[in-house]
Amino acid sequence: MTDSTSSKKYRVARLDEIDAIACPCGQTRRAFVAEDNPIATLHLVDISRDSRAHHHQALTEIYLVLEGQGHMELDNDIIPLKPMTAVLIKPGCRHRAVGNLRIVNIAVPAFDPHDEWFE
Question: How does 48-68 read in b/e, with b if 16+ C-beta sit within 10 Å?
Fold first, then answer.
């Protein structure tokens, strides 16, 4: 549940109460998604074995690994991932996470599903 009371100068998200939905990376719970919030969104993502490489034209993402081990493919580079590894992904960078991972993804500006591009 996300508190969307626009009169408040803050919002609260309870990620365990947000339904998971499919995404190119696996399953995600997206917090702070609202028409009146263009600033940023936060996603709790369980990476799947068949995550799809993609890029964004306008979106910058920050991945923070919470659990698991694996790697990130970033424009043909392989970056090992373990808990407490953070990766900043700029627009245009082709990327995907691989492994048994749970991450937090911060999207700036707020996530736009129309800004996912696949090769």
Answer: beebeebbbeebebbbebeeb
